[in-house]
Amino acid sequence: MSAQHRTAAPRTSGSLARSRPRYGEFAVKVVLLLAALVSVLTTVGIVVALLEPTIEFFSEVGLGEFFGSTTWGPLFNPPAFGVWPIIVATLEITLIAIVVAVPLGLASAIYLSEYATPRVRKVLKPVLEVLAGVPTVVFGFFALTFVTPLLQDVFPFLGLDGKNALSAGLLVGVMIIPIVASLSEDSMAAVPNGLREGSYALGASKMITSVRVVVPAAFSGIVAAIILAVSRAAGETMIVAIAGGFKSVFTLNPANEMATMAAFIAQAGSGDASVGSTAYKTIFAVGSLLFVMTFAMNYLSARMVQKYREVYD
């Protein structure tokens, strides 16, 4: 009996230990849940802040005038509320930025993932990511005081204005290179080495393996990186305000000065419009439109990642 009692005692003690509440683990779960809710609550807060003034704006300015005109001047007298000039300017500068960032970012990612030694990668990747920490106002003044004069001297036939979409787009592209490069490199690094070894076994070179095996395998992550970079470029304010200007003109010529949606919000929100006026409510209408555009891009990114994600054992 005593032997049975001695062997049963540890099981009873273990059972009591397992049933004891773990307050520390519960606290960690609560903290992690709150951290996850921050982004959700922030998004909800943005929608709530934008919704009421936007509804009031469209009760005064019809959707037909807002989307059916190419003249934008809500701060002028008489005002004009055709939003297409700032939409086109936003898309044009974003397109220029993507043309710069995607090739350079992907090339950097392929080099870091497939060619660089661990020592070189350890040095170059942090240096590349430091570029993302440079204040955008620095990029803006660099575009205004160096890039634009340089382009005017080298390509005088372009007829660049002092402030123009081309210089702004180029520097926005440089700014988002770390987003494309870093996230794409992380996706490529997650590709199993077995795929590379199989390609090498078939006689493929490192370049062929990188372009035709690794990049397609990491396609979902690369697409997500590009769309995230597009969203970042579309919402950029300081570079486009300093180097692109505030002139709202419906044009496709990147040599001209033009105002993006973010630049207009910065201009109108600086005190030029009286609070409660239709011009002031335009800030919220444009902000809502920009929010919808970037939200759609992020949703598209999530869908692309889900559709093209490769699962490896």
Write the layout of secondary structure elements.
Blueprint: H1 2-19, H2 23-60, H3 63-68, E1 72-73, E2 80-81, H4 84-115, H5 118-130, H6 136-154, H7 165-189, H8 193-201, H9 206-217, H10 219-234, H11 238-244, H12 261-272, H13 278-308
Helix pairs in contact: 2-13, 4-7, 4-10, 5-7, 6-7, 6-11, 7-10, 7-11, 8-9, 10-13, 12-13
What is the average per-residue confidence, as pLDDT, rounded to a whole number?
85
Give the C-alpha Rg: 26 Å
Class computed from helices, strands and strand pairing: mainly alpha
- Helix-strand pattern: HHHEEHHHHHHHHHH
What is the percentage of strand-forming residues? under 5%
Q: What percent of residues adopt helix (DSSP H or I)?
A: over 70%
For the record, the CATH class of the domain at 84-278 and 301-308 is Mainly Alpha
Euclidean distance between termini CA atoms: 52 Å
The major β-sheet equals: 2 strands, antiparallel
Global geometry = globular
Can you tell me the CATH topology of the domain at 84-278 and 301-308? MetI-like fold
- CATH superfamily (homologous) name of the domain at 84-278 and 301-308: MetI-like
Named CATH architecture of the domain at 84-278 and 301-308: Orthogonal Bundle
Please work out how many helical segments DSSP would assign: 13
